């Protein structure tokens, strides 16, 4: 039985959505019709509108209704992976005792508040032997990330230190803001202690030595000796030393320590002598064998063994007090040469036993004083790169060199601050109410910035020379077992031999 199929039946059977097929079927029937088909298309847009279009398709027109519907779109942003936390800084700190430690503690408390994300492990170094310990750790490859060193160690371990010229500006650090001996005395390589040939290896931290003299004001007054003035000469000083000495009390005019840096070297320098004859490295020929050097050393040793104005080494221990081994701080010495850069340390030990002051350095026969200066900085080792703590280590080093921490240094006065802003301020130069500090603080700056500044002539191998040759050989004269002239001439020969051996290696 044949079934009759109408046009509508065909359309239903073929499906409304089968546009192409429907049109063809109608054409096959021999009819020309207009078919309207409606569909909805949704897409993501921020608004809604309806668009009607007449689309001819071979006499078939599609009526398309596009409905644009706003939808919420999930946005996925890529987040950079978080860095693993940096390991704690290995901070090898030799400000580990006395008011220097108190200063460091206060400074680190400020740093912790500013940088709570930075962790560090404090590794105390023995104040008197920090150079030896750090040298051993460099040799063993166990040294920390950050530590204070002198210029001798800088030259010795240069390859293990991080250059800072490119790093410092990124932290806003300008070396022109600091007191840097290399810049002040660019023509004197003997004072270079934190940079080599314009490459900085340390952030300045403290002036580690400023040569000069302290004196006991009370002892001067009791002995009827006028206070030292800038007009004093060696002869004036020699007379005062005799007046101040009374072995029966016992008290002495001075105390001649076997301190080569700010005692012997400074005395030799003011008489025209030098460590080496060369101005710049390599240092090859010792300069201790000049007539002026020998005369200066003989005068220095004669204070002990001829004039008796300085106690013999064997009697020094008996001149101290309980808890005070230094005879000057115990009140037994009239004037003492050495580093005048730590008046706060002296104050903390002397307390109210007597008043002490800083005196002008007496003029030598030639009339020109020379002052031994030394600078210490915080060096960042390359081990910080290997451990992944380099960035944080540099931040800590820069903080300890900045004015915020250096202001603490100037208040406690356990060292000379290293920023120009602080060292020229009243915080450093003026008296502090309630404290028995020297009034003549300006002499520290005078000696530091004097044109005749003499450095330690640091070089690779300096530590061995300084400790094992200079100190060891001068010990014989200090204890009276060898004439001063012979001692110094032998020291000159040993120094020259050592310097030339370094060239051969």
Summarize the structure.
This protein has 505 residues and is α/β, with parallel strands linked by helices. The chain is built from 19 helices and 14 strands. Among the domains are: 7-67, no CATH class; 90-204 and 374-403 and 418-434, D-Maltodextrin-Binding Protein, domain 2 (3-Layer(aba) Sandwich); 256-309 and 461-505, no CATH class.
Principal-axes shape call: globular
In terms of DSSP E residues, the strand content is 15-25%
State mean pLDDT (0 to 100 scale): 85
Termini distance? 120 Å
Largest sheet: 9 strands, mixed
Low-confidence stretches: 1-45, 47-55
What does this structure look like?
With 505 residues, the chain is α/β, with parallel strands linked by helices. Among the domains are: 7-67, no CATH class; 90-204 and 374-403 and 418-434, D-Maltodextrin-Binding Protein, domain 2 (3-Layer(aba) Sandwich); 256-309 and 461-505, no CATH class. The protein is 37% helix and 16% strand. It has 19 helices and 14 strands. The chain has helices at residues 7-14, 19-28, 98-114, 130-140, 151-156, 181-184, 217-223, 234-244, 260-270, 291-305, 343-350, 383-387, 390-401, 403-412, 420-423, 426-429, 442-448, 462-478, 484-504, and strands at 37-41, 50-57, 60-67, 89-93, 120-124, 146-149, 195-196, 199-200, 202-216, 252-254, 333-339, 356-359, 371-380, 453-454. Strands 4, 5, 6, 9, 10, 11, 12, 13 and 14 form a 9-stranded mixed beta sheet that branches. It has a 3-stranded mixed beta sheet with strand order 1-3-2, with no helix packed on it. A two-stranded antiparallel ribbon has the order 7-8. Strand 4, helix 3 and strand 5 (120-124) form a beta-alpha-beta unit. The longest helix is centred in the last third of the chain and has 21 residues, at 484-504. It is globular and about 70 Å long. The N and C termini lie far apart (120 Å). Mean pLDDT is 85; it is low at 1-45 and 47-55.
């Amino acid at each position: 039985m044949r079934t009759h199929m109408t046009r509508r039946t065909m359309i239903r059977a073929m499906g409304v959505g089968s546009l192409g097929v429907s049109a063809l079927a109608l054409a096959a029937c021999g009819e020309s019709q207009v078919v309207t088909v409606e569909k909805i298309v949704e897409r993501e847009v921020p608004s809604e509108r309806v668009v009607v279009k007449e689309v001819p398709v071979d006499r078939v027109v599609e009526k398309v209704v596009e409905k644009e519907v706003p939808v919420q779109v999930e946005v996925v942003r890529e987040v950079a992976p978080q860095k693993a936390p940096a390991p704690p800084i290995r901070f090898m700190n030799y400000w580990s005792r006395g008011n220097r430690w108190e200063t460091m503690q206060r400074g680190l408390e400020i740093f912790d508040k500013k940088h709570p994300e930075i962790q560090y492990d404090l590794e105390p170094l023995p104040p008197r032997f920090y150079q030896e310990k750090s040298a051993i750790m460099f040799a063993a490859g166990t040294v920390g990330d950050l530590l204070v060193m002198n210029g001798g160690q800088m030259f010795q371990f240069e390859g293990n230190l991080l250059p800072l010229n490119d790093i410092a500006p990124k932290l806003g650090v300008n070396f022109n803001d600091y007191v840097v001996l290399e810049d002040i005395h660019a023509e004197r390589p003997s004072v270079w202690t934190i940079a080599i040939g314009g490459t900085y290896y340390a952030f300045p931290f403290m002036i580690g030595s400023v040569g000069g003299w302290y004196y006991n004001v009370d002892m001067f007054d009791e002995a009827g000796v006028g206070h030292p003035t800038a007009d004093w000469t060696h002869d004036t000083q020699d007379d005062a030393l005799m007046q101040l000495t009374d072995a029966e009390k016992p008290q002495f005019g001075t105390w001649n320590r076997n301190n080569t840096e700010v005692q012997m070297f400074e005395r030799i320098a003011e008489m025209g002598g030098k460590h080496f004859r060369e101005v710049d490295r390599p240092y090859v020929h010792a300069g201790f064998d000049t007539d002026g050097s020998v005369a200066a050393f003989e005068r220095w040793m004669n204070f002990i063994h001829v004039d008796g104005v300085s106690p013999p080494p064997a009697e020094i221990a008996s001149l101290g007090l309980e808890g005070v081994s230094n005879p000057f701080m115990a009140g037994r010495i009239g004037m003492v040469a050495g580093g005048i850069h730590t008046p706060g340390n002296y104050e903390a030990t002397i307390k109210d036993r007597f008043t002490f002051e800083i005196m002008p350095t007496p003029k030598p026969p030639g009339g020109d004083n020379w002052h031994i200066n030394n600078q210490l900085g915080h060096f960042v080792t390359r081990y910080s790169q290997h451990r992944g703590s380099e960035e944080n280590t540099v931040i800590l080093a820069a903080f300890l060199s900045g004015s915020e921490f250096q202001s603490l240094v100037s208040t406690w006065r356990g060292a000379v601050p290293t920023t120009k802003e602080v060292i020229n301020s009243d915080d450093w130069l003026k008296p502090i109410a309630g404290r028995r500090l020297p009034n003549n603080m300006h002499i520290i700056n005078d000696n530091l910035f004097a044109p005749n500044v003499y450095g330690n002539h640091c070089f690779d191998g300096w530590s061995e020379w300084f400790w094992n040759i200079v100190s060891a050989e001068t010990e014989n004269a200090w204890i009276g077992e060898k004439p001063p002239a012979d001692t110094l001439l032998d020291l000159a020969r040993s120094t020259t031999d050592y310097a030339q051996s370094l060239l051969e290696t």
